[in-house]
Design the sequence.
């Protein structure tokens, strides 16, 4: 293993030397961010390799207006909110789902299937599933919606905050941060969409895109591959996560996404409104669409006071450059979502990268 | 008692039903002279007037899990707190808060487990209390145990004795209890392969304390896991701690379950492990003592106490040779989205 690490480090150092400057690589996926911190990878990299955490943590990129809409639903006596665990501490208007949970109208679920079961078990309540995540969780939401339709479960709806990842990468490069030299592409998403989906980033923006798994060695070798391409001046599309990622991905999962969702414009924290970046329920499933059922209008929400999560997600600043970081914003009392989710860049910096005890 | 019989509010009312519950269902499992008196307080004759005294409440859900149940946990947990403080557990109290409607059959199972675990550890249940509450006011059953242990002579454990160079020993794999509970609660499919480490470490700790003053400090890393315990040691001693990831024993199924949910195994609870800070020269002997005990077969020296540079901190050298901080956990791990 040590020899492989050494070879990877050499490739990274050569790229820095050839380019004669700092090399900025963005890991798009939150799971990569956490893995990088947990294995202390940053401390082993050449000084001029800079890792930027991208918009790949589902909780973090969810717009504030969506959070506030969920909190408003949690206030209603007739609603029971079913949510993934890492959403519950995201603050918004009047608190967070964690504070609303004391009224017994918020349940943590591990899957959309559990949410559907809640609907069956609580016929007198409206069960709203907080459906967030990328192409990884969207198929499971779609299955739950189809099941609800097939079984005639009318007290179930989803508030789709599902997003697709490639349009966000395009906006990042074209409008937000052109200093990104290459992408370590998300492994989980690629299982579904296939690594071929990132080809347009290589073609249109001339940036290396390498799909890697989540083991430390996969990440190190993914970074080394990006650096080799930069060194040779030939950006390419490559997957080194060959055990599970194919070029075309999982057609069955893609099909069920297509059957249930339309691709629509979506609001992202930090990135704003992005064309064709969100998954909205098709009209034929509109009775399961919580936006329609509860007349919720989507808008662009602003950041909470002083919060710079948006800039963090674009790789423009590191978390500790935010004046709230580790002061008024901690995992115990988060101001922004990047400090809430275990996969959020601020939480990872706070947990693994900081010396001073809070 | 018939199958399907349930606890009624009146079982806690102090009248005939209470008396019947205590005499027919609770007392037979815990026979000892002190308890048999049924006086308002237990009268104890202890080997020493220097004692350790602790209390803990148990609200685990599910009540029965692979490797144990709430009864076994309530006895072992309190015994372990006494043991790692350098005492020999002598007597326990047992308080039950039972939700109306709770099945007698389950209560019997829990009481049997409590009786067996106490006997196996030579500890008597000497006093107790039973309350019943309305349906919905508690979740099936809550248990409190308090315990008294007699302090071993010549043993002085405390963070003030910790110094740079001391070694840190963990008595076995970490995260087994917490991941078993979480997986069983969440219905994760490989739950059958996970087993709680719920056990009494009293014998193991006493064997270790046979090394006398070489053992400086002990803790059982329960809630908050190894990360919380190491941070507590750090804070209390004002020294830093450096641990080596490759030396930390983790059951691969526990690791897989934690990875799936996005949990850090260092933060996950244990219920049958101890962390010992021992002098450098005694470390190998202490490790061998652990490994000679059935509960400590996978014991490992995971790191050492080091001088503090800036603020006291727990730092881990990772498998790839990187370094990262091990923070005090927030309090609750949240399963991630994907």
Sequence:
């Amino acid at each position: 293993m040590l020899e492989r690490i050494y070879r990877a480090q050499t490739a990274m150092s050569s790229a820095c030397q050839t380019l004669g400057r700092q090399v900025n690589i963005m890991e798009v996926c939150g799971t990569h961010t956490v893995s990088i911190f947990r294995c202390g990878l940053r401390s082993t990299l050449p000084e001029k390799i800079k890792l930027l955490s991208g918009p790949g943590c589902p909780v973090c990129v969810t717009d504030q207006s969506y959070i506030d809409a969920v909190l408003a639903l949690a206030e209603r006596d007739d609603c029971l909110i079913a949510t993934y665990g890492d959403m519950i501490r995201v603050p918004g208007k009047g608190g967070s789902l964690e504070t609303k949970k004391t009224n017994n109208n918020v349940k943590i679920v591990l899957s959309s299937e559990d949410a559907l079961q809640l609907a069956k078990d609580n016929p007198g309540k409206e069960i709203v599933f907080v459906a967030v995540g990328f192409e990884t969780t969207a198929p499971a939401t779609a299955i739950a919606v189809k099941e609800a339709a097939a079984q005639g479960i009318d007290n179930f709806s989803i508030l789709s905050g599902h997003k697709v990842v490639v349009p966000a990468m395009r906006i990042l490069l074209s409008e937000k941060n052109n200093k990104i030299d290459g992408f370590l592409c998300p492994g989980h998403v690629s299982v579904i969409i296939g690594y071929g989906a990132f080809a347009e980033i290589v073609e249109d923006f001339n940036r290396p895109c390498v799909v890697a798994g989540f083991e430390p060695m996969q990440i190190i070798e993914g970074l080394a591959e990006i650096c080799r391409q930069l060194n040779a001046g030939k950006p390419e599309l490559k997957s080194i996560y060959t055990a599970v990622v194919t070029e075309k991905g999982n057609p069955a999962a893609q099909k069920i996404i297509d059957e249930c969702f339309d691709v629509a414009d979506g609001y992202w924290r930090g990135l704003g409104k992005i064309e064709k970046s969100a998954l909205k329920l098709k009209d034929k499933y509109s009775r399961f669409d919580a936006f329609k059922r509860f007349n919720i209008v989507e808008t662009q929400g602003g950041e909470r006071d002083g919060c710079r999560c948006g800039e963090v997600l674009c790789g423009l600043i590191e978390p500790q450059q935010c004046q709230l970081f580790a002061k008024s914003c901690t995992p115990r009392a988060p101001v922004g979502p990047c400090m809430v989710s275990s996969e959020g860049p601020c939480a990872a910096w706070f947990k693994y990268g900081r010396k001073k005890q809070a | 008692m018939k199958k399907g019989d349930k606890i009624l509010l009146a079982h806690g009312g102090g009248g005939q039903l209470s008396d019947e519950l205590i005499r027919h269902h609770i007392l037979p499992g815990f026979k000892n002279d002190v308890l048999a008196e049924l006086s308002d307080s237990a009268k104890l004759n202890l080997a020493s007037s220097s004692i350790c005294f602790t209390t803990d409440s148990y609200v685990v859900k599910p009540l029965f899990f692979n490797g144990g149940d709430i009864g076994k946990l309530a006895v072992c947990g309190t015994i372990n707190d006494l043991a790692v403080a350098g005492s020999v557990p002598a007597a326990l109290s047992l308080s039950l808060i039972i939700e109306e409607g709770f099945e007698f059959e389950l209560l019997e199972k829990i009481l049997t487990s409590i009786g067996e675990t106490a006997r196996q550890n030579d500890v008597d249940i000497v006093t107790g209390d039973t309350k019943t509450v309305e349906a919905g006011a508690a979740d099936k059953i809550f248990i409190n145990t308090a315990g008294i242990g007699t302090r071993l002579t010549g043993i002085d454990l405390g963070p003030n004795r910790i110094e740079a160079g001391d070694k840190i020993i963990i008595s076995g794999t970490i995260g087994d209890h917490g991941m078993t509970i979480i997986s069983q609660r969440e219905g994760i499919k490989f739950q059958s392969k996970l087993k709680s480490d719920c056990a009494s470490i009293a014998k193991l700790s006493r064997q270790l304390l046979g090394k006398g003053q070489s053992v400086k400090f002990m803790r059982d890393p329960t809630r908050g896991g190894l990360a919380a315990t190491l941070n507590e040691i750090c804070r209390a001693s004002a020294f830093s701690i450096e641990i080596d990831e490759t030396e930390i024993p983790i059951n691969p199924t526990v690791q897989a379950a934690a990875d799936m949910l996005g949990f850090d195994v260092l933060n996950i609870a244990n219920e049958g492990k101890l962390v010992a800070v021992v002098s450098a020269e005694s470390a190998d002997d202490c490790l061998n003592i652990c490994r000679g005990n059935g509960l400590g077969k996978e014991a490992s020296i995971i790191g050492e106490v080091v001088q503090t540079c800036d603020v006291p901190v727990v730092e881990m050298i990772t498998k790839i040779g990187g370094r990262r901080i091990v923070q005090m956990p927030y309090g609750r791990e949240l399963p991630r989205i994907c």
Summary: The longest strand of chain A covers residues 272-281. The radius of gyration of chain A is 20 Å. Residues 309-352 of chain A form one domain. Chain A has 15 helices and eleven strands.
